Each structure stands twice: as structure tokens, then as C-alpha cells.
Amino acid sequence: MLTYLSAPETIAALIPEYTDTGDHTVLYTAAGGKTVTSFRTSTLIRQLARTWAIDLAALKKQTALATQRVILQPLPICPSLTLVPVKVRLPRVPGDSSIGYVNSYCVAGLEACKPVDSPAAPKSLICLQGGASIPCLWTSTTVRKTLQQARLFTSYSQTARHCRPLKESTVAYDPHLEPIAQKLVEVFYDILRLKQHPSD
């Protein structure tokens, strides 16, 4: 597999593309590089999830609940890589994906394209760090909304992960509290006994 998968901050986009040798994925880097891989986009994403020990199905379920998107959810793989789905082509063959992914941290801007009466004509350009531009079949408004959803979810999930250890530490076992807890149990027991047998 590509070494880029273990350095997610270098990934700017994963875009499916038809080539003379078949359906491949082009990996764009934040530095402006471009590598044509022999893998499908979904395969690279699964490999990324394995590299970072992420349950991809659980991640999609969480993002679906948070963003109310049944399909095409953003995928926050790690703090430097949130993959945002965008429609980049029309499939030639049933089963081929029309969706590519851009790293929200590497999107430098959006440009609207001149309207053209063709379903395959791009409606916007996603400008990446490093100078590459990804033609997209969605309007710049739709892409901007998708990026905003991804950024909101990412900031929420990072805050939640940051707060989790604090919650765990507040309920941790403390041996100094055991005598107090035992005394409280005895007091509650006495109160219950008195309620059940008030004449004792």
C-alpha cells in the first residue's frame, strides 16, 4: 500500500478516474503531488481505516446520526484528515463510484463553473492546497454546505474525545471514599428499617 496512508496530513484528495488501464484512484497531496494508484477509492479508505484502527462502519453510523445524512457521510479518519465526499464523475459502468473524497483541511477555495448543458460538465472547482483543482458535478453551494457539515462534526467529535478522559477520571475508584460509602449504606439501611418498623 501507499506510504501516504500512514501520513494522512499529506493526503489532499482521493479521486476516482478512468484511465487507459481501467478504473483507478488519483491521490492528490497537500504539496501538489499526484499519484495514480491501481486501487479503487473505497479500497484506499478501508486501508486508511485499518491503518488508524478505526471501525469504519461505526464511524459512518456516528456521522450519519450527527449530520442526518443517510449516505455520503464525512469521514474524520484522524485529526489531520477528514474525508468529505463530492461527486466528481458520471459512472460508465454500473457499480463504478461517482464519488471522490477531499480532505477538508486541504481545501483552499471553491469556484463556480460556467453553466453548460451537459450532465457530465463540472459545476464547480474545488481548489486544493498545492495548486490542484478538482472538477465537481455539484454546485459550489452544495460543496460548501457539505464541507461545513464535515467541519462542524469534526470539531464536535474532537471536543467529545477530548472531554472523555475527564469524565472517566471523575468516576474512577478512590480507596479513600470507601469508609464514607460504607457509612452511607449503613445510614440508608437504618432509615429503611425505621420506615418498615417504626415501633422498633
Description of the molecule:
The protein is α+β, with helices and mostly antiparallel strands. It has one domain. The protein has 4 helices and 9 strands. Strands 3-2-1-6-5-4 form a 6-stranded antiparallel β-sheet, sandwiched between helices. A 3-stranded antiparallel β-sheet has the order 7-8-9, covered by helices on one side. A hairpin with a 2-residue loop joins strand 4 and strand 5. It starts with 10 loop residues before the first strand and ends with a helix.
Task: Characterize the overall form.
Answer: elongated
Count of helices? 4
Instruction: Classify the beta-strand content into a percent band.
Output: 25-35%
Q: What Rg do the Cα atoms give?
A: 25 Å
> Going across the major beta sheet, what is the strand order?
3-2-1-6-5-4
* Main sheet summary: 6 strands, antiparallel
User: Which stretches are low in confidence, meaning pLDDT under 50 for 5 or more residues running?
Assistant: 159-173
- Measured between the Cα atoms of the first and last residue, the distance is 77 Å
Structural class: alpha+beta
> How many structural domains?
1
Q: What is the averaged pLDDT score?
A: 82
- Write down the secondary-structure element order: EEEHHEEEEEEHH
Share of helix, binned: 25-40%
| Counted beta strands | 9
Compact overview of the structure:
The protein contains four helices and nine strands, in the order βββααββββββαα. By secondary structure, it is α+β, with helices and mostly antiparallel strands.
Summary tags:
26% strand; 4 helices; elongated; three-stranded antiparallel sheet
